[in-house]
């Protein structure tokens, strides 16, 4: 985990340099975000997830119209995470607006808030920047088999309070929702590198759940 913490800090330093924020304010923001992503209830929605997202972001940022807004959305999209709540995205969007209103223009703030809300349903958009953001957030589905299995374990840990049979039903519904998306990824870049593996990961995992009919 230490390597992810180190990368998390390095990425933040690069980001704060890119928008040239006040040093005290950006350091305070970092402290809030870091404290959020190491909360005890998190196992997947941690600094590891943010670092993995940012690594992908830096691969495609030249394709974006507003890379600063996309990166801001990545930093805040899971800033509030309670596995027992249904409004994490709304709470994360509100937190971003409250903390960043003096650092970015209001058009960007409103746009990023809307994008964070969009990570709840992952619906295709006419906004290419948003599609890249959503693809980055779902990139874990197309990770190598070892990482995908780790991801599944991490999600199960976050929902360890749910009775196992009910968890299996609800988790299979989530995975089936993504599996049924045609395609899962909305940008050509991520379709080319992740689509096939994501489908394979999802199908293999769904077959492990009893009484699950895989809907193509």
Automatic annotation (TrEMBL):
Cite the InterPro entries for this sequence: HD_phosphohydro (IPR009218)
Q: From what organism does this protein derive?
A: Acinetobacter silvestris
Query: Which protein is depicted?
Result: Metal-dependent hydrolase
The entry's keywords:
Hydrolase
Q: What Gene3D superfamilies does the annotation carry?
A: Hypothetical protein af1432
* PANTHER family found in the cross-reference section: HD PHOSPHOHYDROLASE FAMILY PROTEIN-RELATED, PTHR21174
Molecular function per GO:
hydrolase activity
Does the entry feature the keyword Disulfide bond, yes or no? no
SUPFAM superfamilies in the record: HD-domain/PDEase-like (SSF109604)
């Amino acid at each position: 985990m230490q390597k992810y913490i180190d990368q998390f800090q390095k990425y933040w330093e690069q980001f704060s340099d890119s928008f040239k924020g006040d040093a005290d304010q950006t350091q305070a923001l970092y402290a809030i975000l870091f404290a959020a992503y190491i909360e005890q209830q998190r196992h997947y929605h941690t600094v590891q997830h943010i670092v993995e997202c940012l690594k992908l972001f830096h691969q495609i940022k030249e394709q974006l119209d507003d890379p600063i807004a996309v990166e801001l959305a990545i930093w805040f999209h899971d800033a509030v995470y309670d596995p027992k709540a249904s409004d994490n995205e709304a709470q994360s969007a509100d937190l971003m607006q409250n903390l960043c209103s003096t650092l970015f223009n209001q058009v960007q703030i409103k746009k990023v808030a809307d994008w964070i809300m969009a990570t709840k349903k992952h619906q295709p958009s006419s906004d290419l920047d948003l599609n890249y953001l959503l693809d980055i957030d779902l990139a874990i589905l197309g990770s190598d088999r070892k990482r995908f299995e780790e991801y599944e374990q991490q999600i199960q840990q976050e929902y360890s309070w749910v009775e196992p049979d009910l968890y299996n039903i609800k988790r299979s519904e989530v995975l089936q929702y993504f599996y049924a998306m045609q395609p899962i990824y909305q940008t050509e870049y991520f379709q080319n590198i992740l689509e096939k593996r994501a489908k394979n990961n999802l199908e293999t995992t769904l077959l492990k759940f009893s009484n699950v009919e895989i809907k193509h």
